[in-house]
Amino acid sequence: MGSSPAPFAEIGKKAKDLLNKDYIFDHKFTLTMLSATGTEFVATGLKKDDFFFGDISTLYKGQNTIVDLKIDSHSSVSTKVTVKNLMPSAKAVISFKIPDHKSGKLDVQYVHPHATLNSSIGLNPTPLLDLSATIGSQNVCLGGEVSFDTASSSLTKYNAGIGFNNQGVSAALILEDKGESLRATYVHTVNPTTSFGAELIRRFSNYNNSFTVGSSHSLDQFTVVKTRFSNNGKAGMVVQREWRPKSLITLSAEYDSKAVTSSPRLGLALALKP
Questions:
Q1: Closest listed residue to residue 105, CA positions, set 88, 87, 118
Q2: Are 17 and 9 spatial neighbours (Cβ–Cβ below 8 Å)?
């Protein structure tokens, strides 16, 4: 299965991670603990403006089953059960949230040496149906996705894209928003410590273009610095330090040149894993 194409959601993901991952402008704390049986307990707290959100989750990994249970500060209980090897090259995921009785969903993924198929259906009387597929290989793949709302008998989403990965270069071209916009992404891994990326979005409805460029550089084996610049005048930076094995402290900052009267946005995230 090594040559199988990535799922459609993975097309352009390298650029998305380079330009957006770890940029958090709030205060976040995560504590991960492992039990002797291999069960993982994670406590997360997020302070956004004057509001605080938190959740506690447990993750159990069996030979063919993964159970993820999460309880948040709003007393909602989310459960996700993943069954691998349900049939050759396929896995299924059942998820639901309590007390939202309409949140149940069944996802099935099938992986073929030259194709990947993902399907999802809501477990309610008028479900939302999602289907995505890619064909090709790890180097070049072509795919698309559609969503159908049975309640309104209409397509709520249809996108298509092509991805390319080879020798440190990753590029993608995605037609999204029901054909209303075109997104092009590019990432170049110069060496094991340095990467550069860019994203350009063309919106056909108003002929507006937006772009973002960014970089990631490892100062040493424990410290990573990321930067990004957008045509809307915003500049951001992330400094992430692994101050002990698997424990990270992340500092984020963003300056908006068009909001000269406002202070730069700052964020702090601390992840502890004993």
A1: 118
A2: no
CA atoms within a 13 Å half-sphere pointing along the CA-CB vector of 119:
8
Radius of gyration of the chain from its Cα atoms, rounded to whole angstroms? 21
Q: How far is the CA of 199 from the CAs of 125, 147, 255, in angstroms?
A: 39, 25, 19
In 147-168, which positions are buried (b, 16+ CB within 10 angstroms) versus exposed (e)? bbeeeeeeeeeebbbbbebeee
Asked whether the predicted pLDDT for residue 2 surpasses 70, the reply is: no
Cα–Cα distance, 173 to 162 (Å, whole number):
5
Q: How many CB atoms lie within 10 A of CB 170?
A: 21
Phi, psi at 73, each rounded to 5°: -70, -10
Rounded to whole angstroms, the Cα distance separating 216 from 225 reads 6
Structure-block tokens of residue 210: 């937006």
Using alpha carbons, list the distances in angstroms from residue 222 to 10, 24, 27, 217, 241: 27, 19, 21, 11, 6
pLDDT digit string, tens, across residues 184-211 = 999 999 999 999 999 999 999 888 999 9
Contact indicator for 108, 118 with CB cutoff of 8 Å: yes
Tell whether the model's pLDDT for residue 86 goes beyond 70. Answer: yes
Angle at 20 between CA 197 and CA 225, to 5 degrees: 70
Q: Looking at residue 18, what DSSP letter applies?
A: H
Residue 216 CB burial class (10 angstroms; 0-12, 13-18, ≥19): buried
6 secondary structure, DSSP code: P
